[in-house]
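QA checklist item 7 of 12: single-chain prediction sanity check.
[x] sequence parsed
[x] length recorded as 150
[x] structure emitted
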Amino acid sequence: MQMSQLAPEVYKAVIGLEIAARKGLDPALVELVKIRASQINHCAYCLDMHAKDAIAAGESVERIVQLGAWEESRHFYTEKELAALALTEAVTVLTDGFVPDAVYAEAAAHFEDAELAQLIALIATINVWNRFAVTTRMTPGHYTPGMYKI
């Protein structure tokens, strides 16, 4: 199913959200967050895309590979990145129905209010993309960096 063709207004709206959400955020952090949420959501298409984009932008393969076990591999990431990864997991999973106060407080300690708002929007946006891709069975392996200009 091609969401962009069958629901073009929805697709355009999410593209607009994507553009707005990443403003002011470090591009490397953006890709780490997208990769981690995509791992949690089992979105192979988005994993393929964001790992390739991250590598093309200069991210190390080692840091990308370690994202699945970031809590045990803390030394690969900055404190700010760790706070963002914890928030990404909490917002993506929501098993208790809310983001734990300690996770939010840690993120708030590392991000200015406006930047934190952008990060929350980014996490929400990648979760939307993941759900589109997983539900419509988008196939990984065909993406090349820069294929989608956002």
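[x] summary fact logged: The chain has eight helices and no strands.
[ ] second reviewer sign-off
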